[in-house]
Predict the 3D structure of the following.
Amino acid sequence: MSILEKDLTVKKATREAFGDEIVKLGKENKNIYVIDVDIAKSCKTVNFIKQLPDQHINVGIAEQNAAGLAAGLATTGKIPFVSTYAVFGSLRMLEQIRQEVCYPNLNVKIACSHGGLTPANDGGSHQAIEDMGVLRSVPNMTVIMGADYYSTRKLVEQAAKVYGPVYLRFTRDTVPIIYDENEEFTIGKAKKIKDGSDIAIIANGDTVRLALEATKELEKQGISVKLLDMHTIKPLDREAVVDCLNIGKIITVEDHNILNGLGSAVCEVVAEEGKGTVRRIGVQDQFGQSAPYEKLLELNGITTENIIKTAKELI
């Protein structure tokens, strides 16, 4: 069955995927550790604590200490996953990530829930709209965001097996299960959901579901869409972006500031190739506010309707 034909009413949060996968990985490899900062319930590491207490450390509300501890563990051959909220895992820990993790290129994974606007009613202070952009600017760091439960599990598994710093972004709300359990994913290689000839849509994370809905509607209207799930924005799959230039018209969709995230990464490739047009749909360089998640998406034009409208304007 094509992904476009799948029933998208079955939903599960990507933070749940992390919680489930890290237990499996921890049982398989005793070098895997989870470092919490007193929010294990929200970040879904509670089962890891119950089943693998000897591989768990809670440092309290002290993210910077968590990053330093992770760096130290990595020097002894451990594979630490620091689990926290995205806004704190990317910004409060940034100096320690740069100086103590990325500069010596240590095998530390920063696994963050509540990415993007999904903290919703918690307000702009808890919404991480610049996390992926900040961390993709730091040398040696890999930056990943899965689109659903199964893709996130596969990407967490790969992150544990790849040496070096990795930033994994999860979200709070449930999202449709898009992929089958056995679907394969490779860090740094985009997932081509559908080929097409009139316009290319490149999305990541929770917005892949919006891009899917837009693709279905555009296809009904006779517009052929190429749809990519760009789960890794660093290293970006340059070849996949260049392949979209045969169409020449690209829309990027992300729950992240349009500056320095997926859209900017794609624009860099397009500019270097010297051809093609890109329209970026994402957070419009503004802080969020307290409101339901879907309302915040609407306020930033991150909607199926806007993807369709933008596609028609470009063609």
Notes: The two ends are 29 Å apart (CA to CA). The chain is about 40% helix and 20% strand. Residues 158 and 187 are 7 Å apart (CA to CA). The chain has a mean pLDDT of 97.
